[in-house]
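Encode chain A's predicted structure.
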Amino acid sequence: MADYKDYYKILGVSKNATDAEIKKAFKSAARKYHPDLHPEGKKAEMTEKFKDVNEAYAVLSDKQKRTIYDQVGQAGYQNYARGGGAQSAYGQGNPFGGAYQQYGGGNGNAYYNFSSNGGGDFGGADFSDFFQSIFGGMGGFGANMGGFSGFGGARAGGSGQRNGDVEAELALNLEDAHRGGPMQLTLPGGRNVTVKIPAGVGEGKRIKLKGFGNPTARGNGDLYLIIKIRPHLTYRLEGEDLYVPVTLMPWTAALGGTIFVPTLDGPVKVKVPAGTHNGKKLKLSGKGLSGKGNLYATLTIDVPRTLTKEQKELFAKLSQIS
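Encoded structure for chain A:
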């Protein structure tokens, strides 16, 4: 059994932290440990810390998973790892059989959660053994329904769904949602399926996989994938529009010029008008999510921390003119 992970400690928040506090801590920690911001010799170490931060946020930002994680607790998990613990209704010493009951278990409509790792493989390989032991359904935790092992939670299907239909939250990286394409999904029960993700798929969209639901007396139900897009370090997504901060030097803001704005399809050369003020937004039409929305570059004027002698003299002259 994997060692217990304290997700609250990893993000540096209290157990009573609000959703806003957790999101803020995640952004701060993600920037701190992002491998690309560190020298080559520290990339391996930072990669592991970065994975822990993402994993902690994936649990604590999700109401159901956070409830299950809190219910298990460190003592409960370690007790289970040693082979102890009270037997649950499922006869496995499951410390959160109660969480399954809380979310409506036994109605034939299960709720699962899958996640992409940015490489088109939804097998959950980017999560630790600890995460898998609780939420992967492979370590004795969670309720087993018809061959699928859920994440300890279940809920009734949406209106009009048949008994046996399954809803699964599918977390995508922004880049994967943007480009779409065929991706491999490994169900917790071990079944593999190729899913065609539409380019530009948005948050909350549903993808139906016929016959991949929970087996019933009338046959298999259907699997409905509900798309959730992960927070991104660079871009903010609103609907199909993207927002990205761009730093501008003061002389470019004053005199105008050209800058490069990052997009999901690569950097784009953009003209900046003379007299641009701090906070101005530049609109790039059709550069949003898969070309369906727009991209807005929010300009921030950056004052250099160190100036050459000539630059200081020029700024001194400007101050006298103003």
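The chain has nine helices and 16 strands.
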